[in-house]
Amino acid sequence: METFFLSHAYLMEHFNAPVRRSLMDAIDWSYRMIGIRGPRGVGRTSFLLQYAKENYDVRLRQCIYINVNSFYFQAHGIVDFAGRFVAEGGQVLLIDQVFKLPDWREQLCECYHKFPYLRIVYTTTSVPMGDEDDPTELSSISRTYVLHGFSFREYINLATNQQFEAFTFDKLLQEHNHILRTILPKVHPWDYFRDYLQHGYYPFFLENHNFTEALLKAMNNMIEVDLLLNKQIELKYLSRIKKLLYLLAISDPASPNVSKLAAEIGTSRATVMNYLKYLEEARLINMVHREGDTFPKKPAAIYLHDANLLNAVYEPSITEQTIMETFFVNCLWRHHTVNKRRRTGLFRIDNTTNVCVCDRSRRVRTTADTIYVKYNTDVGRDNDIPLWLFGFLY
After folding, report:
1. How many domains does the chain have?
2. Pairwise pLDDT comparison (135 vs 376), residue with the higher score
3. Do both 53 and 183 map to the same domain?
4. Long-range contact list for 268-277, CB < 8 A, 24+ apart?
5. Are residues 193 and 120 in the same domain?
6. Which of 114, 130, 146 lies at the terminal end of a domain, its last residue?
7. Whole domain around residue 47: which residue ranges?
């Protein structure tokens, strides 16, 4: 136990989070069991450490961070450790990457019942186990939250030392002229937007590492570890999934040819559809359907999850339009229904709002109520809204 306390103290002493994640204030910390889900690279570990540093004095030993990568937990498990921690006065147990233990759900439930005064906060992957949502007891006793990558708002707050707030989609549409007047006198967002598209979504750009190499490592771990563990995929098939992801990255997002993709990676059409679902759960792609369609129907468009992933693949044929549409879809998918219209750049949001993502100099002939989401510009007016502003939705 002393070794774990020393490790926790070292992490607290050397941890520094330049950006406070907005999820920190959205969580109801009174729950005894809290899950933080998210894909690789979005900062799950930093989130736990930030919570510990903000709320608990290391000297009191009330809170401890552990990572199940330690071989100790393969032999002793979580329940044994939690019992020893509670016996020494522990109150809050922060468990990182708990999904790597084979019976982690059962162990967390046992801790919940056995130690009624212990609060547990754990992190897990965005990839669910099996093909369905969690059917176990844990889903009923745990309050789960999702941690995403940096929004453009969080990124620009870090870069400019500002404190810009987030806006709802409806408020952004109705009051974008007023919102712009509160932002543009302080910063020129487009000056930062290109950098964000290249490296701003994943927090490890803050570290002194090669960002692209770090992102490629995270992408491979999403497939080789998260999908392998949770979907029970045989190792020999992982190369097919990686090739599929590459083909999706370099192809036109619109009208993906599933049969052609199946032929290129050497498998069936049905298997490709399953792989697409897995890649979406791993937050490597976003599937966009026509209105009225949902999975397992063929998507109308397939985008990588965020623009940083496109830059990691580095294919010169990837167009600016594709990059901007990728960013737009990533901003909206969390809380809104995004459907693809047939023409380039046209979307329908929540079955009510027509949106056209296009360059500032382009005008698409469409319905009078269409909102034009323009890139290569800081400003907007009337039905024109700058694309970067949608990065302020969270």
Report:
1. 2
2. 376
3. no
4. 272/244, 273/298, 275/240, 275/241, 275/244, 276/244, 276/302
5. no
6. 146
7. 2-146
What is the distance between the alpha carbons of residues 177 and 292, in angstroms, rounded to a whole number?
Answer: 32
pLDDT tens digits, residue range 242-257? 999 999 999 999 989 9
> Domain check: are 171 and 132 in the same one?
no
**Dihedral angle over CA of 119, 125, 128, 129, nearest 10:** -90
Whole-number pLDDT of residue 134: 57
- Provide the 8-state DSSP code for 226: I
Residue 382's contacts (CB-CB under 8 Å, 6 or more residues apart) are none
**Cis ω on the peptide bond leading into residue 253 (within 30° of 0)?**
no
Which token pair is 260?
Answer: 């052609």
Determine the average pLDDT of the residues in 41-55: 95
Q: 362 with 372: CB under 8 angstroms?
A: no
118's CB contacts (< 8 A; 6+ apart) are 32, 82, 85, 86, 90, 91, 92, 93, 111
- Give me 151's structure tokens: 């929004």
Q: Is beta strand 92-96 parallel, antiparallel or unpaired with respect to 285-288?
A: unpaired
Give the tokens for residue 177: 């002229």
Same domain, residue pair 200 and 112: no
Q: What does the pLDDT look like over 277-312, one tens digit per residue?
A: 999 999 999 999 999 998 999 999 999 999 999 989
Summarize pLDDT for 167-180 with one digit per residue, the tens.
Answer: 999 999 999 999 99
Element of type H or E holding 158: helix 152-160
pLDDT bin (cut points 50, 70, 90) of residue 314 is confident
CATH number, domain at 88?
3.40.50.300
pLDDT band at 28 (very low <50, low <70, confident <90, very high): very high
